[in-house]
């Protein structure tokens, strides 16, 4: 979707909002340390992308640096087939 094409319907009617923070009770990821304790900071902000042709939506992390330690945090596992 970040390239402007919807992966569900192949439409180019994809819109994103990079300037206004996306508000939702679950719009943040809270990382935990190796012992399961919450990090003192909140996780990364997300940018919503929405296809106005089919309604498919996706969330992307705005700053990739904010998630570089994700593989080392409790509860996060790599998705495989």
Describe the structure.
With 81 residues, this protein is an all-beta fold. Helix content is 0%, strand content 17%. The protein is built from no helices and three strands. The chain has strands at 14-16, 46-51, 57-61. A three-stranded antiparallel beta sheet has the order 1-2-3, with no helix packed on it. The mean pLDDT is 78.
Provide a compact summary of the structure.
By secondary structure, the protein is an all-beta fold. It contains no helices and three strands.
The percent range for helix content is under 10%
Roughly how many Å apart are the termini? Answer: 22 Å
Strand order of the largest sheet: 1-2-3
- Rg estimate, integer Å: 15 Å
The stretches of 5 or more residues where confidence is low (pLDDT under 50) are: none
Q: Give the topology string: H per helix, E per strand.
A: EEE
Compute the number of strand runs: 3
Structural class: mainly beta
- Average pLDDT score: 78
Number of helices: 0
Biggest sheet layout: 3 strands, antiparallel
Strand residue content: 15-25%
Query: Based on CA inertia axes, which overall geometry fits?
Result: elongated
